[in-house]
Design goal:
Length: 326
């Protein structure tokens, strides 16, 4: 029988302590292991918010599937949006291993009780926004999510491996769109620049509040749910993205952005945290639209869920009859 958190200690120490030692030894927590209730709650919160973000995140891009400029672009965009649905499903499944019910999680999203990423409350008025989302939003997602492949909860860490592989394809499809526009006509280059201007700040806000205003970070880092702080990941993203913008010949919309030799990082301007808080409270440019669309889609899909449940019941009854007859 494999060892569990509860039987690691030779001396009588508290379960909390054994749990922390187990994590400090870089061992994974699995669904049947003992865990502090707060660890379980934190994970359900983070994983379900992450799942909701993937599901709502399909909307800004789905908006452009019918208007993609070529068949190749359309196929890639459909595949990307479909991948996001898949990410949502793996993540809901990971949260279910912690005892969360899928129906409750979905109900919390639909009622507006649950959060999803701030970034998906911004509009996509031009095709270049699809490039900017792939490049910047998926780029930010990669910075934030690659360390989650090493998060302490096994099912979440394993789900993130596939998610990150797909995100890296998404990031490249976005960068390729930006490259085509940046090397195109002056109007196309302008379109790319305007999309970059729209998405740069929201992408930086996506990493969450500054470390000194992040109530969950300290405990989540101790439990190795989070491996890096919000500010560290934001800085990593800025450092990674500046040369990519230079390569495209586009300008990041921040007059305070400059290389700091001493720190070995780029400095950047103050971020609008009041805007972030407003978006979280439901007052971003597209919050109402996103929620209304999700609720409508859920209601429109009721017949599919009913048909799938009826089919599953029928299969179950058939199998039971076959077992009885055997
Ligand atoms: N938007 O104490 P903090 C994607 C909330 S999917 C909204 O730092 P934590 C993609 C936070 O929840 C993108 N809320 O929290 C999909 C907390 O509120 P509660 C999503 C945010 O959890 C499709 C409060 O602010 N990625 O990339 O330690 C296409 C205080 O924050 C945001 C993930 O979910 C935000 N941006 O750290 C393309 C990754 N930031 O819950 C791309 C997994 C913070 O206490 N999640 N809040 O009421 C994480 O890594 C962490 O949960 C966060 C926040 C870094 C996001």
């Amino acid at each position: 029988m494999s060892q569990t958190v509860a039987d690691t200690a030779e001396t009588p120490v508290s379960l909390d302590r054994r749990f922390q030692d187990w994590i400090d030894a870089e061992r994974k927590i699995e669904p049947r292991d003992w865990m502090p209730e707060a660890y379980r709650r934190t994970l359900i919160r983070q994983i379900s918010q992450h799942a909701h973000s993937e599901i709502i995140g399909m909307q800004p891009e789905g908006n452009w599937i019918t208007r993609a400029p070529s068949l190749r672009r359309k196929v890639a965009l459909i595949a990307k949006v479909q991948d996001e649905a898949g990410h949502g499903l793996y993540l809901y499944s990971a949260a279910e291993t912690l005892g969360a019910s899928r129906d409750d999680m979905v109900a919390d999203l639909l009622s507006g009780k649950a959060k999803y990423s701030s970034i998906f409350n911004y509009p996509t008025p031009s095709w270049a926004d699809i490039g900017a989302i792939g490049w910047l939003v998926d780029g930010a997602a990669i910075c934030n999510q690659v360390p989650l492949c090493r998060t302490s909860y096994g099912p979440y860490a394993r789900a993130m491996v596939r998610v990150c592989k797909e995100e890296s394809f998404h990031q490249r499809q976005g960068y390729e769109i930006m490259m085509a526009l940046a090397q195109g006509t002056p109007e196309q280059k302008q379109m790319a620049q305007e999309a970059l201007n729209r998405w740069w700040i929201p992408s930086l806000l996506m990493f969450g509040p500054p470390d000194d205003q992040s109530p969950n970070s300290a405990q989540s880092m101790k439990w190795k749910i989070k491996r890096h702080s919000n500010d560290d990941l934001r800085q990593r993203f800025v450092d990674m993205t500046v040369p990519q913008a230079e390569f495209l010949g586009l300008t990041l919309p921040d007059p305070d952005l400059k290389w700091n030799e001493e720190r070995g990082h780029y400095d950047f301007g103050a971020l609008p945290w009041d805007e972030f808080q407003a978006v979280l409270k439901g007052h971003g440019p597209c919050n109402r639209q996103r929620m209304a669309f999700r609720n409508k889609t859920f209601a429109d899909g009721a017949w599919v869920r009913e048909a799938a449940s009826a089919y599953a019941e029928k299969q179950k009854a058939r199998q039971a009859a076959a077992v009885k007859a055997a």
